[in-house]
């Protein structure tokens, strides 16, 4: 079985990465501290160990990616997580983002549409550190009606439109952060739900994500 070691070298590289993300404009120290506490190299193939702390996305299984650290920090910061917030994440992938959310104090529910990725996560030893995260195999477009409403929703794949069922599953004053696709480029959006069910939209920078796809696989 794979041995997970977090050496001084890893910690040093991680510190440099976090400093560089701060330099790129991330100001929420709780988010940065959470990322300092999570050894990103655990989420990657051992062959990528030496570059795990570069600020870039990497391939994981099934043609998916672990998001770029800056992107993880950016989305988490936009969510403005309060301790105990009930947060739904769409696109578990490597579970790195889910664990960052747990580290900043969220009560995390995460959905993955690919069975293989969902199953791989069950075997991931580091997951034991976050027993509170609830993992689901399903289609994120449907959300989790049984567990709704949520304080925050985070989509970590390129959404072709704002999923109406996810808006429904937000609490009043709740927020959703998503990369909204427009001809291959995604604009980071933040939705804030009003008490009457309507919502406000804010638009942020451009990013590049793998697509959010319908159904399970
Ligand atoms: N949050 C992840 C990023 C993974 S990439 C991480 O930290 O590693 C996006 C993930 O979204 C992929 O694993 C992809 O399979 C998943 N995905 C795409 N469409 C989805 C949908 N409709 N429902 C749930 N997951 C979806």
TrEMBL record:
UniProt xrefs under InterPro entries: PCMT (IPR000682), SAM-dependent_MTases_sf (IPR029063)
Compartments (UniProt record): Cytoplasm
One Pfam family matching this protein:
PCMT
What keywords sit in the KW lines? Answer: Cytoplasm, Methyltransferase, S-adenosyl-L-methionine, Transferase
Q: From the Swiss-Prot or TrEMBL record, what is one GO molecular function term?
A: protein-L-isoaspartate (D-aspartate) O-methyltransferase activity
Q: Which top-rank group of organisms is this from?
A: Bacteria
Q: Which Enzyme Commission numbers does its entry carry?
A: 2.1.1.77
Q: Biological process GO terms, please?
A: methylation; protein repair
Q: Which reaction does it catalyse?
A: [protein]-L-isoaspartate + S-adenosyl-L-methionine = [protein]-L-isoaspartate alpha-methyl ester + S-adenosyl-L-homocysteine
Which top EC class is named for this enzyme in its record?
transferase
Cellular component terms (Gene Ontology) = cytoplasm
Annotated active site: 67
**Protein family according to the UniProt entry:** Belongs to the methyltransferase superfamily. L-isoaspartyl/D-aspartyl protein methyltransferase family.
HAMAP family in the record, alphabetically?
PIMT (MF_00090)
What this chain does, per the record?
Catalyzes the methyl esterification of L-isoaspartyl residues in peptides and proteins that result from spontaneous decomposition of normal L-aspartyl and L-asparaginyl residues. It plays a role in the repair and/or degradation of damaged proteins.
Q: Which PANTHER family match?
A: PROTEIN-L-ISOASPARTATE O-METHYLTRANSFERASE, PROTEIN-L-ISOASPARTATE(D-ASPARTATE) O-METHYLTRANSFERASE
Protein name, per record: Protein-L-isoaspartate O-methyltransferase
């Amino acid at each position: 079985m794979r041995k997970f070691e977090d050496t001084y070298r890893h910690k040093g590289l991680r510190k440099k990465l976090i400093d560089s993300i701060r330099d790129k404009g991330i100001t929420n120290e709780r988010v940065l501290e959470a990322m300092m506490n999570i050894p990103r190299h655990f989420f990657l193939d051992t062959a990528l160990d030496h570059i795990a702390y570069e600020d870039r996305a990497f391939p994981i299984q099934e043609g998916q990616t672990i998001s770029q650290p800056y992107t993880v920090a950016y989305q988490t910061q936009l969510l403005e997580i309060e301790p105990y917030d009930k947060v739904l994440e769409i696109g578990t992938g490597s579970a790195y983002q889910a664990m960052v959310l747990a580290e900043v104090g969220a009560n995390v529910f995460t959905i993955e549409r690919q069975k293989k990725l969902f199953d791989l996560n069950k075997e991931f030893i580091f997951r034991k550190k976050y027993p509170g995260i609830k993992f689901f195999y399903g289609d994120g477009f449907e959300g989790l009606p049984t567990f709704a409403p949520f304080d925050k929703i985070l989509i970590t794949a390129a959404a072709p439109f704002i999923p109406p069922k996810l808006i429904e599953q937000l609490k009043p004053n709740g927020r959703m952060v998503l990369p909204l696709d427009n001809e291959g480029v995604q604009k980071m959006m933040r939705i804030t739900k009003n008490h009457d069910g309507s919502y406000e939209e804010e638009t942020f920078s451009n990013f590049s994500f793998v697509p959010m796809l319908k159904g399970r696989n």
